[in-house]
User: Fold this.
Amino acid sequence: MSLTATARSPYVRNRYTWLAYFMLGYFAYVQAAPGPAMPFLRAELSLNYTVAGLYFSLMAVGMILAGLTGAGVVRRLGRPAVFWGGGAGMAAGAILLIVGRSAPVTIGGAFVMGLFGTYLLNIIPATLSDLHGPNRGTAVTEANVAASAATVLPPVLIGLFVGTAIGWRAAFWAAIAAWLIVAAASYRVALPRPAPSVAAGLKAPLPRRFWLIWVVILLATASEWSVTAWGADFMVSQVGLPRATASTLMSAFFLAMVTGRFVGSRLTRRADSLALLPGALALALAGYAVFWLAPAPVLNVAGLFLAGLGIANLFPLSLAVATTAAGDQTDRASARVSLGAGIAILIAPQVLGAAADAVGLAWAMGLVLLLLAGGGVMIAAARAARAGA
Assistant:
């Protein structure tokens, strides 16, 4: 049964809520920073594109490993140790990335960032869900607004710092310093506790609805990263825009992600997350179809923006539904979600790139429509599934 606004208590953010928002923004910022930093790192270490791709592949491998082991690590060490240890480990990985002077060391840093960052990531939706209960959709979506906003900062700060004495690395040091300040001020903040059955190590199978939504999360993440990886190239080769213009116009997608998640966080106060998913999916499909098929650049960019508005909410809304379906098993659910996201990030851009080599980028980009359509089938199945089945 869907929860309506009249059945919910008011959404109240406490100190831990704000801390969780910051920590998810910190994770998103550090995860996004290697992309805009890569041209400088490649030049300094004389890396080819194949080796440069390993940074992102190994980061995704770290995410997958954390997704497989995260629930067990939380059971053994407890949420506070994983929460703060994950943040510290991500900072350590970032330091390896920026102080290393060889590819193995810096790639190792990317792996450490992905591993420990995902341990941190696993804790945030689980604790927000346990803390806010029926309002978990609002909490998770607002947290993802912070994450989306944070991803806009690395290219801006790297561009600002590159001409200074510290150079592009200052953008990483700024994130590490911010985390240290917040950690020093907030380490005594209590984290929401898991349900007693989970704390005691008792596990029930995750229900069918969770796994249906897990597939939605995998497909939505694959769609988002495919557009992120290849959208600019598509606008160059198929729309006919100059490279610099295409790269700049990709900001429409990221702006739409921030805007979409902000609007989505407001809508979750009035409607159940599962009820909102079909609308987000329909907007994503319609917008992406325009982006892919439109004959004029202004329409392509408009479609890209609309697609971003829809895709923006697929992950946070699905995550809220998944943690609701998981009941007391929020730590396990969050770990499995990270596993799915890691698989999607590792595989989807590479598969689409291989398809582009085989049949051309124009046809390959059509695979994103199939990913989104598959997500629609899974959403329909989840809506039809009996709660807790």
Summary: The chain has two domains: 13-193, 206-389.
